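Notebook entry, structure prediction.
Reason for the run: the old model in the group folder had no record of what sequence produced it. Starting over properly, with the input documented here first.
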Amino acid sequence: MSDSIDHLYSAIVAVQDDGPGASRTVRLLRSSRTKISKKVAEEAVEVALDAVADDKDGVVRESADLLYNLVVLWVSLGIKPKDVWSEMERRERLLGLAEKLPKNKVPDGSSRRKVVTLDARRVRKGR
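New structure, fully documented this time:
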């Protein structure tokens, strides 16, 4: 999977300086970051709606659109796929592959976040 996203990222970077009418990708990259972000949100909602409707083919198609628009957003922000893979690896080391980092702020008021252990999360959720 990461190879496919790396390949998509390289393809988007390769066309970003093409002429304005060259492709949908170029037009999207030349639009505002707000528009790109809205496309990411729109595709995420479409994935969710197709999932609720139990439309597996729709989920597959919309997931591909979501990934495409997400990678366009990364390119617009100068984020490389390896940055995301590194963050995923860091989280896996901290919590395991299937866990998301909790959003609790560090008590000192800084923007850093503290890591809450899985056992502490289970206790808080009443498990």
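Summary: The chain is about 65% helix and 0% strand.
The old model has been moved to the deprecated folder.
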